[in-house]
């Protein structure tokens, strides 16, 4: 059983938390360990405004089924579930029945977890939780004429995956059930950037790529980018998974830590605890 000392193993640490979707949950995790969460929710996740397109996609899948379904995010599974059950529970039941008949390909552990909540399975996991990992997992498979559903996210058309499926002569049925929207006002983001540049944080924990995009968009628009990158490289930068890590590295930011395999918030917190314990020993 953990002692009080063990539980508060982030005592005195100030950790930047740009998470939005589960901000309170994540902040509570680190605060219970003694840290001070410095919050700046950079993005919000909302249903796509093109609800008609999602409705048509659901009708198409329910009516004709799929051979394969590619799930890129857990959020996508949740949003499509929500869209389906808004009309009647029967619509969700029919969708789940159709999805159960398709081979499910998952990019990472999060969509797999959300599928299990629907009593569905992941039949094929990406070799790594990236688009490249999905493509590699499907590279040797004959998809000619297959009806392939693809759950996209945000406004990213994911051209590499779409081009790969087109080259495989698959019949592509793509749907993007949610978008990213700016949440924090620009002055809040600037205050957050200034806090980082002033060296007032011990760590920043990034949990999605759009957070980094928004942070640097504001920094560049306000001539802070040149100061932001070296400031981040002077503290602990935590990334929840490889996609987030790649986006940080593209900005010249060195990732200090990342969970080994389970790309969720609890493993991210444990990785930060291990990092700071090692630093203080």
Structural write-up:
Its EC number is 4.2.1.75. Residues 26-266 form the Tetrapyrrole biosynthesis uroporphyrinogen III synthase domain. This is Transcriptional regulatory protein. Helix content is 48%, strand content 16%. The protein is of the alpha/beta class and 281 residues long. It folds into 2 domains: 4-42 and 183-280, 3-Layer(aba) Sandwich (Rossmann fold); 46-180, Rossmann fold, CATH 3.40.50.10090. It has a 5-stranded parallel β-sheet, sandwiched between helices. A 4-stranded parallel β-sheet has the order 2-1-10-11, with helices on both faces. The longest helix is centred in the C-terminal third of the chain and has 16 residues, at 265-280.
